[in-house]
Amino acid sequence: MSIVIGCLAFLSEVVIKPSIPNTLRLKNNCIEASKTRELSKKDMKLKNELPSIEGAP
Questions:
Q1: For the residues of 1-52, what is the DSSP string, one character each?
Q2: Three-state SS for 8?
Q3: pTM score of the predicted model
Q4: Per-residue pLDDT tens for 29-51?
Q5: Predicted local distance difference test score (pLDDT) of residue 3
Q6: Where in the chain are the domains?
Q7: Whose CA is closest to 32, among 4, 13, 48, 45?
Q8: pLDDT of 13
Q9: Neighbour-count burial for 6-16, b at 16+ CB within 10 Å, e otherwise
Q10: Distance between CA 15 and CA 51 in Å, rounded?
């Protein structure tokens, strides 16, 4: 199993507090995702950017 340096897993506080990442032996660095309900479209820096997507019918 490889570990990617700089890779983060965003988890809920409910999961991080009781050491569930350790129990599950997660290899990624786990950090708490907080205040996500307070975010809006205005907080997204690249909200006007869209990728170029092409598809074949």
A1: ----TT-EEEE-HHHHTTTHHHHTT--SEEEE--SGGG--GGG-TTTT----
A2: strand
A3: 0.47
A4: 888 888 888 888 788 777 777 77
A5: 56
A6: 1-35
A7: 13
A8: 82
A9: eeeeebeeebb
A10: 33
Tokens standing for residue 2: 């490889």
Rounded CA-CA distance 13/36 in Å is 12
Name the 3-class secondary structure at 9: strand
- How many whole angstroms separate alpha carbon 3 and alpha carbon 26? 10
Residue 10, both tokens? 């965003």
Percentages helix, strand, coil for the chain, rounded to the nearest 5? Answer: 25, 15, 60
22 pLDDT higher than 60 = yes
**Each residue of 35-51: b (16+ CB within 10 Å) or e?**
eeeeeeeeeeeeeeeee
